[in-house]
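Retro notes, structure queue

What went well: the backlog is down to a handful. What didn't: a couple of records were mislabeled last round, so from now on we paste the full input next to the output in the thread. Example, using MerR family transcriptional regulator from Paractinoplanes rishiriensis:
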Amino acid sequence: MLIGELAERAGTSARTLRYYEEQGLVRPKRDANGYRQYDDAELRVVHEIRSLLAAGFGLDDIKPFVACLRAGNESGHVCPDSVVVLRRKLAEVDGYLEQLTAVRQQLHAQLTQAEESPCRKQT
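Corresponding output:
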């Protein structure tokens, strides 16, 4: 398939696909006339890239997942390098959750204090 068809099937743009190619994530074959040709395996790779980007991964983080797929694995997250990235991302998310929990507790305490304040107007 040509770049336009891949873009349509993957729900992205040809420009984005060319960017992924520049980053070494997508590998088209070239026709004699220089046109990019993609097979269904590249569609799968693009879906994996888009899914990981949506989950908050950066392009550098995605490279091990793509390599895992290219190695013939059914999923991009089963290889050791991908597991390292998953562990790091999970630790990052856990850190965000701890920060958000602390902010939530602080806001809750301030709201409780404000509601109990004699300065509060009754409505």
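Agreed that this is the format going forward. Reviewer comment attached to the example: The radius of gyration is 23 Å.
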